[in-house]
Design a protein that fits this description.
Layout lengths: L1 H17 L3 H23 L7 H9 L2 H19 L1
Helix pairs in contact: 2-3, 2-4
């Protein structure tokens, strides 16, 4: 039973708790801000091809947050031009 306890602890519990550490939260927030800036500039410049950094960030950010960040950037661009 000790082996099963250790496996579950190391495979499921600790990685989940690690996502709530301040360093990880701060890194995620910085990635989101950077992606927002890059996507905003891409929309303003009417560039259809994303750069390498944008593609790297898209791989690191989950789908829900990507859609949320893109939508907020689109709203900001709409407000920027009106």
């Amino acid at each position: 039973w000790k082996f099963a306890y250790t496996v579950i602890l190391n495979e499921q519990v600790r990685p989940h708790l690690a996502s709530f550490k301040w360093e990880n939260v701060k890194d995620n927030l910085n990635r989101h801000k950077e992606y927002h800036e890059l996507y905003f500039q891409q929309l303003i410049n009417h560039s259809s091809k994303p750069d390498k950094r944008t593609q790297e960030l898209e791989k690191q950010i989950d789908a829900f947050n990507l859609l949320y960040i893109r939508r907020t950037a689109q709203i900001e661009v709409k407000n920027f031009f009106s």
